[in-house]
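Regression test case RT-17, inverse folding.

Input:
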């Protein structure tokens, strides 16, 4: 029996029809993130995109991501770390009783400051299933990057870094916007120089100004400077992590970002495993299976 998995984010959503063996039978994507859904409009958008998939009376759907946030369809309270797939499955909440459920996301705390994720937790459990890595570091690059510690198939904790958002702010809304071309493709050499510079001290606030002066003295082009600035930010992020060459590291995300993180990690002599969208569907399948194994099944 197949089920429907939906990853509903801030600006877009995607869904998959998945069979009981975890095989993806069909996929759909739409620019209908939660910010574009009017108040009370979630059921209509869901039916428009997935109503035919949900036509069989016994078909179930599991939704993850920002649809479970306060601005989403129904707020799903976070599941605290440490947590395994069973703990997460036990906290899903009902949208349509017995048919549609929402994954709650995870929360952690550092020095009494909370941290949260929604959607990435499904990718993490999917990546564990696909790679067999149950102890290591899972990195999820994006607008707000997640660095996740996993031990014994449990998410012990995680930290969020606003690296992607800071890059956009600096490249598009600061003085650097006059010297950086954020639309340029990756220049691996310039990127590596930025990562290396971040390790030399001086701090990001100082080093970022170099993305202006290197252009001012025509030592780098706007295209090169985009990669250099990206390297500075990702390098700054990497140097806060307790990594070593023997660490198991799994990258999960879009190739445009995982390629950069893989390059930066290889500079530390770490070769990560890399996954994309398949991690989301594998994680949804794992949670769906866990739900089917409980007495109550879907809430």
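Golden output:
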């Amino acid at each position: 029996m197949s089920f429907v998995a939906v990853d509903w984010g801030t600006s877009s959503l995607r869904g998959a029809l998945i069979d009981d063996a975890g095989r993806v039978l069909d996929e759909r994507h739409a620019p209908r993130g939660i910010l574009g859904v009017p108040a009370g409009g979630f059921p209509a958008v869901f039916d428009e995109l997935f109503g035919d998939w949900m036509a069989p009376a016994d078909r179930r759907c599991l939704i993850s991501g920002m649809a479970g946030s306060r601005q989403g369809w129904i707020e799903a309270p976070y599941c605290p770390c440490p947590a395994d797939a069973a703990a997460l499955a036990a906290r899903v909440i009902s949208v349509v009783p017995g048919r549609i459920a929402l994954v709650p996301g995870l929360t952690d705390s550092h020095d009494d400051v909370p941290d949260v994720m929604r959607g990435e937790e499904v990718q993490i459990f999917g990546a564990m299933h696909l790679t067999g890595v149950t102890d290591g570091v899972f990195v999820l690059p994006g607008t707000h990057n997640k660095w996740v510690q996993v031990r014994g198939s449990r998410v012990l904790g995680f930290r969020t870094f606003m690296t992607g958002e800071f890059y956009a702010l600096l490249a598009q809304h600061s003085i650097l916007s006059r010297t950086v071309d954020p639309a340029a493709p990756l220049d691996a050499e310039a990127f590596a120089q930025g990562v290396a510079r971040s390790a030399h001290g001086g701090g990001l606030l100082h080093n970022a100004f170099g993305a202006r002066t290197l252009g001012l003295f025509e030592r780098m082009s706007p295209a090169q400077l985009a990669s250099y600035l990206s390297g500075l930010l990702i390098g700054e992020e990497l140097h806060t992590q307790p990594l070593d060459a023997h660490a198991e590291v799994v990258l999960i995300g879009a190739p445009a970002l995982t390629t950069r993180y893989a390059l930066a990690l290889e500079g530390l002599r770490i070769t990560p495993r890399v996954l994309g969208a398949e991690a989301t569907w594998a994680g949804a399948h794992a949670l769906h299976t866990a739900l089917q194994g409980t007495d109550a099944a879907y809430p």
